[in-house]
């Protein structure tokens, strides 16, 4: 597939515009309800499908099917990612109105990181074709491990990343609205929201290790791999708010996702012996996901929405209005003046104390 530079610029431009629209629509922190999340989910899916139709018309049916197969794989694997997000937010007791800002920044970081991973993967495959067999073996092993550990859950409070973050970065115990950093007493401090963002980014890196090799099983075209990843990730935030309180009903999710990984791993492993048409691969993936959804709806019939429960990662609170009003500027000359004035004030008070003692 000969992809002109203009096509890449169109994709990057579309992503930038959609991120700007999303940021503007959520510029004020608020709780995102089911209806709003559903509307945004439909909008993101329509954008992704519209792009796929464009690929189909311009590049042909084969590349169009490759895009939709990659998009479906990435979208399916993203559900597990959203489940981990729900556990992280629950462990830190992140207020619902501040969760979108974390996910927005997380998606921006995910797009950049996955772009790097995709470029590296494409270069490896181009230079060493046998890498595909390593990808295949890794996907099959990951699927097998996912089935065996399907009842195990993530524990953010035990994360080594969180332990290192707390050791290296001074952190306050209070949420200061949507701020990631604050300055208090001349000292720069992280809020719990920054720790959550770090965990979200690390989680995406872990999931990218599975999803990107899986997409390379259905297409070797970096443009399609990136586009499928990007459009699936862009709609992930809305899908999270839509499904966050329904995660307990995804009883067969890990089994379905594991079978998808095993399927694409086997397909990649047999690449030189037997070619599986993209249409067949797309139908198999759609069937696995569809059956797992039907089974989980039947198994959890009658169960309503409820938040995900997780072990606490710490005692966090909401900063008072007085605490927020007393914050110093984080960046710029204002923060330096605030720090220097406080230092001068401390010196003056110390001098008065010593003078009083004499």
Automatic annotation (TrEMBL):
Lipid bilayer topology = Multi-pass membrane protein
Query: Where is it found, in Gene Ontology cellular component terms?
Result: membrane
Known InterPro entries for this protein?
Integral_membrane_TerC, Integral_membrane_TerC_rswitch
What's the short name of a Pfam family annotated to this entry?
TerC
Q: Basic and acidic residues bias located where?
A: 342-358
Residue ranges, annotated region (Disordered): 332-358
According to its UniProt record, where is this protein located? Answer: Membrane
The source's superkingdom equals Bacteria
Q: Which UniProt keywords apply?
A: Membrane, Transmembrane, Transmembrane helix
Q: Does the keyword Transmembrane apply?
A: yes
Q: Decide whether keyword Signal is in the record.
A: no
> What are the transmembrane regions?
6-25, 37-59, 79-95, 102-124, 130-147, 187-217, 223-243, 250-270, 276-297
- Family statement: Belongs to the TerC family.
What protein am I looking at?
A: TerC family protein
Species of the source: Cryobacterium mannosilyticum
